[in-house]
Amino acid sequence: MKDKKPNYRILLILTTIILWLLSVVLAFLLFLPVLDSIIRIYAAFWGDTDPIGQAFFIGVSLRNAAMFVLAILYVIGIIGGAEHHSRNFNTPTSWHVMFLTYAILLTIFLFTLFF
Asked: Angle at Cα 9 formed by Cα 5 and Cα 13, nearest 5°?
């Protein structure tokens, strides 16, 4: 009975680490689709037909600003998620944050599919 307890803890640690790393990779892979969606929405409402006009430069600036904001949110999410899971390992709040992380990633993915 005592031998199964450490194996169970190691399995929980590995599961948490794998799920956290998977969320990090998925969030990184969503950068380009999110930026493309932002530009697509901008072009639909404020774009013009001139290929190198003012709307083009505003679109590039908008994409750069969005990339900066996404990168900051990404770093905050990585560091905050790792810190939260290491301090609250295997508690309901840790699993709740993991669920919220994947729910947000799924929502962002669906946003990029429809927009």
From this structure: 170
Q: How far apart are CA 15 and CA 19, in angstroms?
A: 6
Instruction: Decide if 76 contacts 88 (C-beta within 8 A).
Output: no
Token pair 């950068």 is at which residue? 31
Alpha-carbon distance of 47 to 53, in angstroms, equals 9
pLDDT per position as a tens digit, 12-39: 889 999 999 999 999 999 999 999 999 9
Phi, psi of 47 (to 5 degrees): -75, 155
CA angle 65, 58, 51 (to 5 degrees): 135
Q: The dihedral of CA 105, 18, 96, 80: what is its sign?
A: negative
- Classify residue 85 by burial, with Cβ atoms within 10 Å: 0-12, 13-18, 19+: buried
Give whole-number Cα distances, 35 to 73, 82, 96, in Å: 14, 25, 28
pTM across the whole model: 0.85
